[in-house]
Structures are given as C-alpha cells and as structure tokens.
Amino acid sequence: MTTILLKCQCGVLTGVVRNVTPKYGSRVVCHCGSCQAFAHHIGAGKRTLDPQGGTDIYQTNPAQVTFRKGTEHLRCLRLTPGGTLRWYAGCCNTPIGNTINAKTPFVGMIHTIMGEGRKAATGPVLMHVQTQNALPGLAPELENPSFPKALRKKAMRKILWWKMTGKTRPNPFFNKDGTPVSEPEIVNP
Ligand SMILES: [Zn+2]
Ligand SMILES: [Zn+2]
User: If residue 188 lies in a helix (H) or strand (E), which one and from where to where?
Assistant: First the structure.
C-alpha cells in the first residue's frame, strides 16, 4: 500500500494520500467542460489539463487524505449552485480534488497535488471519460462519451463499500456537521 505525498506548487499546503493502488482507487482522465472550466477559472489550466483538455484524477475516499500543513489555504468553488465541490490550494491555485458532499465517501484527487511516485502507484489510466468535451487530437480508441456504465457501476460499488466500512470520516474537506471546511465560492450563481 503506497502513500503519496501531497504538495501544492508553492509547498505551503502539504499532506498525504494513503492506499494508492490501481485496485483501491481508480485513475481516470476526465475531459468534461466543468473540469476544464475549474482549472481555467483558477488560472491553472496549463499545468492541470493535458493537450486534449483532460484532467488526470485518482478516485479514492476522503479517509485516505490527510492535510498536514497549510490547511488555512484550502479553498473550494462550485461552478453552479449545488454542483461538485472543487478544491484547490489558495496560496498558489493548485487544484486538489473534487468532492460530492459530506455523506459520500468519494474524492477525485487531481494529479497537480500528488507528488512523486503518483503514476507508478495509481497505475495506468483506466479510462478517459466525458470525451465529448475533449479538445481535438484524442485517439479514437480512447473516446468514451459521458461516463461509461461499467465504470459508473464500479465507482458506485466502491462508494457503497467505503460507506459500509466507515470511510466517510475522517474527512479533511468537511466539518462534522457536513459543511465544507471552506465556504464555497459559487462561480455562476
Ligand atoms: Zn501553495
Ligand atoms: Zn470532469
């Protein structure tokens, strides 16, 4: 079981994500317009997105994530009210990850926050998703419009299992009462 260090670009916000293995979590590249909009909104498009607008994400649960330093720089935003909570380090606008809510043990950790050894630990990309929003140049065999059913089922099964095995807490993104640890900015109210 591999532990990967988390570190924002300026080094102020640090932490770890545990149990990083191809089996424990899932590595996907998301090309959806919202992931792209998030990266661009915080001025991190260039270092976050691949040439086809993809974001390399390792899906796991929040109980695996611990921040050690710089937590006062944790920021989040929602592109629309009620949308995905998108986290970043406000000190240097490094994307951190995406969460749904406090009750759902799920976080998609973005490659920009994960340190050395990430690729070896997460294994190869399982799938490219939401490729209807990909920029030109994606190999046809990688195309997967929307979120393929098989992958969705796999994610749901994992979330359910994590729920049953108590991986909803501790959660560094939400307070005990379910509110995000940082007040979300709503980009398009
Ligand atoms: Zn920083
Ligand atoms: Zn996305």
Answer: none
Instruction: Tokens for 43, please give them.
Output: 């001025």
Give the pLDDT confidence of 52-96 residue by residue, as tens digits: 999 999 999 999 999 999 999 999 999 999 899 999 999 999 999
Ligand nearest to the CA of 31: 2
What is the token pair recorded at 58?
Answer: 């390792």
- In this structure, the dihedral spanned by the alpha carbons of residues 45, 97, 35 and 157, taken in order and rounded to 10 degrees, is 150
Measured CA angle at 80 (ends 37, 7), to 5 deg? 50
Look up the pTM and report it: 0.97
| Single-letter amino acid code for the residue at 153 | K
* Separation CA 124–CA 111 (nearest Å): 13
Distance (angstroms) between ligand 2 centre and the Cα of 99 equals 12
Ligand nearest to the CA of 14: 1
Structural domains present in the chain: 4-138+158-186 (2.170.150.70)
Distance (angstroms) between ligand 2 centre and the Cα of 31 equals 6
Distances 35 to 38, 68, 182 between C-alpha atoms, Å:
5, 26, 20
3-state secondary structure of 71: helix
